[in-house]
Amino acid sequence: MSTDSKPIPLPVTAVTCLEDRALVERAVRLDLAAGVQRLRLGPVSALAVDRTLHAELTSGHPATVLDARIVRTWTPRQPLPSADDDSPLRRRVHTLEEERLTLEQRRDRLRARLDLLGTLAADVLREIGEGAGSGETEGPRWARELDRVDAERDTYGERLRAVEARLAALAVELGETERAMDLAEEEPAELVAHVELTVEAAAAGPVGLRLTHLTPCALWRPAYRAVLDGDSLTLETDAMVWQRTGEDWSDVRLTLSTARSASATEPPRLAEDRLTLRERSAAERRKVDVELREEEIADLGPVPVLGLPGVDDGGETRVLSAPAPVSVPGDGRAHRVPLSVFTTGASSEYSCSPELSPLVTQVVRCDNLSGHVLLAGPVDLVRGSGFTGRGTLDFTAPGAPVELAFGSRDDHRVVRETEESRDSTGITQRTVVTRTVRLHLSRFSAPGEHGERVIVVRERIPVSEVSAVEVRLRKEACSPAPDAVDAEGIARWDVPLPPGGRRTVTLVYELSASAKVAGL
């Protein structure tokens, strides 16, 4: 068996970044000799997971991989170099630290001298007060002593300010020098890993090697940038990638996946669930218990899993690929990788739901034409005036509508008032609850502003799930009547507001329940 002690470089060629780790792929061309031989490849990241190491030969050369393992070596820190061997940066740091120590000592002495002069000035003033009270008149001497103390305080105060200014400048220069020294004289890693590969070749010749392994300390999250230009919306999909694996990824094929390799894949256990029927009691037949509850209206797309950290992929593994090779340094910082971009026509409306918020928000809607799913993540909002804020993009399937809020309008105000009355009819003993909602809209416009602006106002009406409770919209009492009411009980008005205009929208509906209904 032949052994080559010189390591063969094993660069990273492709990376599949998962939610909390990365699958690293390396490729290299080897020149094998006939027979069994052990090769030393690397260095590789010392964080590589040993049990995930997999090596295979990609060409048709008659060769076989017998063994592949990761071998780590510990390199102790070298002793500190002598003063004569120090680099200019280290000498500069040493000089600055000595100067800083000298200035700090001088600053302490000056502060102590100023404290003594302050005490001396207080003693002189006390002596003047006591002498003036006892009838002494030594004005010239007192004036000379006060002038001398004030002159010394001014002199030492000016010296103290000069020392403090020099210390501040010294701190900035020392920090810059230390950062430069860290970048120029970075020490090699103490723990270094190599791959020892044992192969057997029937004949000498070149062969391709592909090696993969998992490594921690790498993750990614989706990020977006939406640019609104009139009726056109440009949505850029990016990936924020962090990695501190101990090596840089240079010009690699980057794939982003939402797979969770650490999660268990076992199906849930089945438990017995028995359903039984029983007769209702007389009290239950005489009385119907109802209650009001809040229910969120689900949109198109999978429902996000509550409490699940990381990337929301709708319960299905999603894979995205960078269109071009990328480089991600191993510095642990966030690096933005472009994935896709599309431009499409968008519809815009000024929407308000006064029950939730009194603000009027500009909402932009378009279809997802990126060709892939849009995972939930932050989105930077940009309009003609520049960056306007940051919002949130929910999980969106391909072709599904995308809804983005581009901030509220400061020149609009909405005030909501509610009234409720309760009455009972004498014959049927039905309880009737009448609710009146008044929405006051106003627009504050600058001088010279023209044109109406349509505000879409939405207010909800309860939806009954039992026949004993009826909900009726009193259109004759509404002012104006809603333009539309959907199956979820959301009433909608398109209210035009001229510059400086005010409008009031009134909604009236009734909840009617029979006498046996309780809890309304």
**How many structural domains are formed by the residues?**
4
Structural class: alpha+beta
Helix content: 10-25%
CA(first)-CA(last) distance: 88 Å
Strand content is 35-45%
* Whole-angstrom Rg: 38 Å
**Spans with pLDDT under 50 lasting ≥5 residues?**
300-309
The number of distinct β-strands equals 28
Oligomer designation: single chain
Mean pLDDT: 86
- Spatial shape: flat
Number of helical segments with 4 or more residues: 3
Largest sheet: 7 strands, mixed
Describe the secondary structure blueprint for this structure.
Elements: E1 2-3, E2 12-17, E3 22-32, E4 35-44, E5 54-57, E6 63-74, H1 88-133, H2 139-184, E7 191-201, E8 205-215, E9 218-229, E10 232-243, E11 249-257, H3 282-286, E12 288-289, E13 319-321, E14 326-328, E15 335-345, E16 347-352, E17 361-367, E18 377-383, E19 386-393, E20 401-408, E21 412-424, E22 431-443, E23 453-460, E24 469-473, E25 484-485, E26 490-497, E27 502-513, E28 517-518
Parallel strand pairs: 1-4, 2-11, 9-18, 12-28, 16-23
Antiparallel strand pairs: 2-3, 3-8, 4-7, 5-8, 6-7, 9-10, 10-15, 11-13, 11-14, 16-17, 17-20, 18-19, 21-22, 22-27, 23-26, 24-27, 25-26
Helix pairs in contact: 1-2
